[in-house]
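Example 3.
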Amino acid sequence: MIRIDRPFSLYATCSIEYEGRAKSTLTPGNYLIIHKGDGTLLIHGASKFNVLNYQPPGAILRREHDHLISTRKNETIKIHLQQIIHYYEFPDWSNKIDITMTEKHLRLQIIENIGMILNDAIIETIPEFATPYGPVDLVAISSTGLYYIIEIKRNKAALAGATQLGRYLSYFREIEQETQGWLMSPAISSGALEYCRKHGFHWGSVRHA
Amino acid sequence: MIRIDRPFSLYATCSIEYEGRAKSTLTPGNYLIIHKGDGTLLIHGASKFNVLNYQPPGAILRREHDHLISTRKNETIKIHLQQIIHYYEFPDWSNKIDITMTEKHLRLQIIENIGMILNDAIIETIPEFATPYGPVDLVAISSTGLYYIIEIKRNKAALAGATQLGRYLSYFREIEQETQGWLMSPAISSGALEYCRKHGFHWGSVRHA
DNA sequence: AGTTCAGTGATGCGT
DNA sequence: ACGCATCGCTGAACT
């Protein structure tokens, strides 16, 4: 009865039983079992995208003789190992400490490289630019008087971020200021991407260095 | 430019770009990359259940110098390898040929072991038992006159299977025949499981040997 | 082919 | 804590 915390990958001949919200049994065969440091357990078959069985983060894994048992709340996965074909523990697999990388931090990095990102001569940058619809994350003004209206998201930008940018831009349209709308984030969802395309907004791939 | 078909697992320091329905970039770091024989590509971070990036079955993977590139329709994943920490090719990882294991086949197996599964003395089994609501997959009659009403599903039983069983049982209730309802399948969904619990049906884990 | 719907959906952001 | 919207959903059954 040994608790396992380390992240590892295991390729083995085994049979698997799951009982919880649903139930299932997997016939003896070769499966790929992945265990992450947060307790996540993934059981993959030879094909298809989906896992066959899993536990979400927070599950606890232990070994009992030739069984691997993962439990979480009311859900249990029991793996009956018949033959271990390959076992590997992942060194240095931890979330880089993203802490303290706030949007403000990312914004500073963007300001530093703003000319390169927009490929234009920027003469002024104004964070938290006030509008009646709320403060714009960043406004950059080019030498030709063009206003870049920039919405920044630390994570994946979703539809809400794109519509937020649209609101700001409608204000600048009201005061007849020439603008270009930009959404900047490490990733963008399909919905937000389509919204941007339809409204002529740009997306900039920025990432916390 | 070498096309890769074999299934493998790769743990590497790399950066990754995805462009398709959505877009994203992954900062340089350690990621687990899994490639299946059907083209499926999975990219996992150190925590969480979800993949960070993926390609569904049918994608094509190739290597160009220090890049791994997976393409499918309008979607591309480009992996820039910096350091390979661990690489392993999976031997014997293929879908066992589930040849033509129809529900009828499974039913024959169930009939053979019916006494053991139900833990009762069965004196007669009737496949395709006709009722006004459709044919019951299997009816087993015990020495005490109890009727086991059995609905069989080759794959995961979903809600529809459970309600189907309920319909049959309502008929036997009409003719005042004492019954016990069973759903037999290798897996059962949460909705079907709850339905069974609420109506007092049983679930039997059966699998094609 | 498209369409609909369940899934152990997960995950993040709001209250 | 719970609820809600979003997601490159996937996958299977049915038309």
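Chain A touches chain B through 49 residues (CB under 8 Å). Chain A has four helices and 15 strands.
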